[in-house]
Amino acid sequence: KQEVTQIPAALSVPEGENLVLNCSFTDSAIYNLQWFRQDPGKGLTSLLLIQSSQREQTSGRLNASLDKSSGRSTLYIAASQPGDSATYLCAVGGGSEKLVFGKGTKLTVNP
Amino acid sequence: DAGVTQSPTHLIKTRGQQVTLRCSPKSGHDTVSWYQQALGQGPQFIFQYYEEEERQRGNFPDRFSGHQFPNYSSELNVNALWLGDSALYLCASSLMRTGGVETQYFGPGTRLLVL
Fold it and tell me: For position A94, what pLDDT does the model report?
């Protein structure tokens, strides 16, 4: 059974800081890994999708890496801004297969 | 291009009642998945519909049932509601491909409160 763990559960940083969110999964037989952003009481916004054959993906100030063999992924956020404050969720699975989510990391970026 | 839409946005029910939630997938998508997200938790997979049939199911009781219509829209029905069913219910759509992978697009969710 696939289990996804996200560390830390919460993180508070000053504006402008670079930060790393961590995600680990128990079964390396995944199709892909996605990082989502969720604002309070809202749905999920997909940030980055890494295919199982890829090592990383980048979008603007975000960079996500994937190491299937060790069951780990990291989301790197450069030059954090208050607007980045949200809960970040990691999910493994694949497209039309079910996604297994972690509990998320709640990020607060202080002005 | 309309994204995934869900209705209603909020709902209040009492224990024992039944509820129906609705989802319209993103244009061009044919697969709908439903997730339950309790407060402070990650979303949990309920089931997935493709070609009007339930394709996969998570660890949820039979009180949770669904349907997919020919236009790919979907409904989630929950019978005999209890307090623990209070959650944000998320719908995600994707395009089914053989051997391929597609990202899932999520709707804004329906917030269900059971009193």
Answer: 57
Cα atoms in the 13 Å half-sphere on the side-chain side of A21: 31
Q: Convert the pLDDT of each residue in A10-42 to its tens digit.
A: 999 999 999 999 999 998 888 889 999 999 988
| Residue A63 burial (10 A CB sphere; 0-12, 13-18, 19+) | middle
User: Which chain A residue lies closest to B97 (C-alpha atoms)?
Assistant: A96
Q: Closest residue of B to A4, CA-based?
A: B42
Residue B113 makes CB contacts below 8 A (sequence gap 6+) with B10, B11, B12, B13, B86
Mutation site for B-interface testing, chosen from A7, A32, A44, A54 by largest number of B Cβ within 10 Å: A44
